[in-house]
Amino acid sequence: LVWNHVLMNEGPQISPSGLPPTVDWAGDHAVIIDQTLLPAELRLVAIRTVDEMIAAIKRLAVRGAPAIGVAGAMGVAVAAIAAEREGRPVAWVHLEADRLAVARPTAVNLRWAVERVRPAIEFGAPAVVAAALAIRDADIASGMAVAARAADLVIDLCGTPVNVQTHCNAGSLACAEVGSALSVVRALHFRGALGVVHVDETRPLLQGARLTAYEMNALGVNYRVQVDGAGPSAIRLGLVNCVLIGADRIAANGDVCNKVGSYPLALAAARAGIPFVVVAPESTLDPMTPDGTAIEVEERSEDEVLLWGDRHICPPGARAWNPAFDVTPADLVSAVVTEARVIRPNRGERL
Amino acid sequence: LVWNHVLMNEGPQISPSGLPPTVDWAGDHAVIIDQTLLPAELRLVAIRTVDEMIAAIKRLAVRGAPAIGVAGAMGVAVAAIAAEREGRPVAWVHLEADRLAVARPTAVNLRWAVERVRPAIEFGAPAVVAAALAIRDADIASGMAVAARAADLVIDLCGTPVNVQTHCNAGSLACAEVGSALSVVRALHFRGALGVVHVDETRPLLQGARLTAYEMNALGVNYRVQVDGAGPSAIRLGLVNCVLIGADRIAANGDVCNKVGSYPLALAAARAGIPFVVVAPESTLDPMTPDGTAIEVEERSEDEVLLWGDRHICPPGARAWNPAFDVTPADLVSAVVTEARVIRPNRGERL
Asked: Which ranges in chain B belong to alpha helices (H)?
């Protein structure tokens, strides 16, 4: 069991979530938690080839914009090591990096991280590994920094206790190990400022029910899982006073692309007059994309909606529309909080 | 197989949905489709006791506000027949009626229908049966009348083709046999005015994926099933130009109580400037309830959210919040269409 990453070289040999790192490096290969098996099983999987990493990203064994960024960078490191072992040219590593960059289309972190390590390729595998680990460490540091800043902001905006509505999983399982939105939940909890957390189950792949609930359980906070259609009701009824979510890409004007089902929470929050706060690392910001209309939203397999495991939910012949993400217009976004700053898109602030 | 109800004594020996009646009467007992088994199996179940009827209503074997109204009335008829057979007093039938009226709390049709047949109790079982059948026939006639009126309205508001977003199942399976919102879809289809129908799967019990998809399949229309979180995106992206849903109760001011997940569609429709149209029989209107805050929203078992069949989705110890319905404020409701009239709550019109 690989559970040996020391957070920032301080503290105990586990991450603050109580889980092993979501994406870790083990000398010459990557190690990920296979999130498709949670919460039933916590299985760590060694990733020794680019094909394995791409498959893990595509099937959401590793998911969450920051985590797949780190995974993409480590995928390039795996390629660089393979190239040296097998006597392949540098150009081959670049082609492998190209394949990694497009394993999923929407989260900008994946492409960002691959391009970030790419210049190291010409300096050999150890340089690529070091560059990938730097991205991993920056992600962890980002989670720590954003948590404090966002917790300050949320307490300022909402008072205490903060009762949180969240969606999907923007936790340690979405990042290298600390998390974005759920790192704020953790900070609020440790400050004694947290009330209850309402967790959308997040169909079709149930990242909320499976992963966020798992993290909330580990943290020992008071939480309730609900169907996605109930989130806006929780807001309307005043059961929560803050929406805290992550993001997969944020456009220059502040439009936020996140897991499908985020937009209805933003609509409900605006109507109820409660803050809709997006927590993400700077690597999720995409100033080159002018607004949400320019973001490619991944459409995933219809079977994710039509089947449950191998059992048909729908009648034979049914078709599905399965966008993985939605776009929340900037005017509904109260704040984007990163490790570096607070941006207020609904006040017209741009990235 | 009981498939012999002649619609209004006209036309072929099947209902316009192509399905047997959702709730039917067979001489001395009721017959329902067990909707928990759809779409895998179309099973008709005989209901010979009040306990059986209450259990069927509670476990959603029969569901949909109009359908459980008819079921409640037929439950009183079953009680009246049992009383005569077993020599029980009229007061006993009234007590059985009391139990039926509260089998589920939110839909007003159930209580309405039970109270509607109650005066017949003193005239004996045949009178109660006749009163229950009158409610059934009125429900069927209502579905036919509302379909034409609402189709006219929707074409007027949206032009053609009408691309529909719906939620849950407001179809023949929610009524005695014609349906509310889906009767309008059917009318639009037969007029050549229907484009595509976006069907929310409707967690936790998947009435959309299981039942509405089943009805759309039978009707041969172009439809797509989507997760509930995607409905507001379908609206935002212009994939649909009209929301058509049913209702479980409508308050005097026009606040609409319907399956949880309806409110986010109303928010998205208002933002996109497309009509949010509620289709329901007059028996769903509740002028005695001033507004949505006075409606008791049923909270159902946490296991509906936490389990899939007998398999745990969430980690051990997880808790759920499982409201069956939500309330859409009147200002977001473009129209309530019944067999008798069109009400425009967002213009301040009251019931």
From this structure: 50-58, 65-86, 90-101, 108-117, 125-158, 181-190, 207, 213-219, 231-236, 262-272, 303-306
CB B103 within 8 A of CB B72: yes
Please tell me if residue A99 touches chain B, with a CB cutoff of 8 Å: no
Is B137 among the catalytic positions? Answer: no
Q: What are the two backbone dihedrals, phi and then psi, of residue A342, each rounded to the nearest 5 degrees?
A: -120, 125
Q: Which amino acid is at B277?
A: V
Nearest-CB residue to A260 (from B227, B268, B314): B227
- Cis (ω within 30 of 0) for the bond into B281? no
**Hey, which residues 169-188 in chain B have their CB within 8 Å of chain A?**
none
**What DSSP letter does each residue of A141-164 carry, written as one string?**
HHHHHHHHHHHHHHHHHH-SSEEE
Contact between residue A316 and residue B38 where contact means Cβ atoms under 8 Å apart: no
- At A146, give phi and psi (nearest 5°): -70, -30
What's the one-letter identity of residue A99? R
Q: What is the pLDDT of residue B59?
A: 95
Please tell me the distance from the alpha carbon of residue B215 to that of residue B186, in angstroms, as a whole number. 10
B2: left (phi over 0), alpha (psi -120 to 50) or beta: beta
Distance CA A302, CA B279 (A): 30
Q: What is the pLDDT of residues A57-116, one digit of tens each?
A: 999 999 999 999 999 999 999 999 999 999 999 999 999 999 999 999 998 999 999 999
Minimal CA–CA distance to B169: which of B199, B208, B222, B196? Answer: B208
When pLDDT is averaged across residues B232-240 and rounded to a whole number, the result is: 98
Give pLDDT tens digits for B335-344.
Answer: 999 999 999 9
Report the candidate in B160, A78, A319, B73 with the shortest Cα–Cα distance to residue A70: A78
By the CB < 8 Å criterion, does A42 face chain B? no
Tell me if chain A has a CB within 8 Å of the CB of B55: no
Kindly report, residue by residue over A144-188, the tens digit of the pLDDT: 999 999 999 999 999 999 999 999 999 999 998 888 999 999 999
Each residue's pLDDT tens digit, B176-207 = 888 899 999 999 999 999 999 999 999 999 99
Mutate to test the interface with A, among B38, B314, B319, B332 (most CBs of A within 10 A): B314
